[in-house]
Amino acid sequence: MKNIKLKNLTSFRLGGGARVMYCLEEKNAPLILKNLIKKKINYFVVGGGTNIIASDKGFEGVIVKISFNKIQVLKSGILCDAGAPLMKLVNEANRSGFAGFETLAGIPGTVGGALFGNAGAYGKEVSEGLSKIKIFDGSRVRWIAKNKCAFAYRDSIFKKRPWVILQALFKLKRGDKKNLIKKSKEIICIRNKKYPPDLKCAGSIFKNIPVKSSMGQKLIKKMPPEKIIGGKIPVGFLLETVGAKGMRVGEIRVSEDHANLLINNGRGKADEVKTIINNLKLKIKRKYGVVLEEEVRYLE
Ligand SMILES: Cc1cc2nc3c(=O)[nH]c(=O)nc-3n(C[C@H](O)[C@H](O)[C@H](O)COP(=O)(O)OP(=O)(O)OC[C@H]3O[C@@H](n4cnc5c(N)ncnc54)[C@H](O)[C@@H]3O)c2cc1C
């Protein structure tokens, strides 16, 4: 495809253009990626585009969209293409009586994108039931075991290596179908209030801060204990204390409900997002002496 608008590829609905986008299918993926590398053409992999801030200037290279999305339910787990929506995986797992994904219901995006950032919610992460991942490593397709993926809170080896995730094999424990489906429904209800379906955003902008990290140790004494959730200091709370809620630059604003959420009214620019991000980082650095880390990725 030619002359793509990045705002149409991302849930934040902003960004300039890209001249070319390849929609990768399972069979042509390695060949197309190999050719791009051989010709030294810069490329950026996009899944669901739900965790991306795309530059207003657009992207000079090629956008590579992971378009294969098969899900196969096996005896002891699920084999899933990287381009499958995470929600489809949650539903398949629930319906098949496999536990582990039910609390991830409602996280938008693809399985590839979720594994890249080790997406999670309500105490669970997508990598938990993972057995191995099929990747294209720049020269060949191969499987890597979970213990080689360096999964941590919203982190993985994929943030450091230019590998493309193609498929994932999950080995899952059994659960009660009815309960799993019920749990997912409950979570979707909660999430729909937090993120109405037409909200133009990229989810949480910054990562929360694990108490055990050096940043966490620096902050812990200043935190009311009841604010610490699941061993993490919520960045939303820190941002509230520096008056982030309702802050606005141009057409982008910090949500009145969640200080770690930026919302585009539809006419926003990536530069406005970046100005707010930099302002917030500065305020937190001044007040707490720590530097916030973005969870969102920049496409530029
Ligand atoms: C309303 C809303 C709510 C959200 N709630 C949550 C939440 O509760 N928990 C949470 O963890 N996240 C949440 N997010 C963030 C986002 O949905 C997740 O990070 C999601 O897993 C990203 O998947 P994606 O396919 O959209 O990735 P994209 O946004 O397309 O890409 C994100 C990064 O992953 C890389 N990538 C994507 N696919 C591949 C691949 N196949 N191989 C290699 N690299 C790849 C991209 O290059 C990019 O760097 C939310 C976002 C929104 C908009």
From TrEMBL:
Protein name according to UniProt: UDP-N-acetylenolpyruvoylglucosamine reductase
FAD-binding PCMH-type domain mapped to chain residues: 13-175
Residues of the active site: 154, 204, 295
Record carries keyword Cell wall biogenesis/degradation: yes
EC numbers for this chain: 1.3.1.98
Pfam families listed in its UniProt record: FAD_binding_4, MurB_C
Compartments reported by the entry: Cytoplasm
Provenance organism: Candidatus Niyogibacteria bacterium CG10_big_fil_rev_8_21_14_0_10_42_19
A GO molecular-function descriptor: FAD binding
Top enzyme category: oxidoreductase
Pathway assigned in UniProt: Cell wall biogenesis; peptidoglycan biosynthesis
Claim: Cell inner membrane is one of the keywords in the record: no
Function: Cell wall formation.
Major subcellular location class: cytoplasm
InterPro entries attached to this UniProt entry: FAD-bd_PCMH, FAD-bd_PCMH-like_sf, FAD-bd_PCMH_sub1, FAD-bd_PCMH_sub2, MurB, MurB_C, MurB_C_sf, Oxid_FAD_bind_N
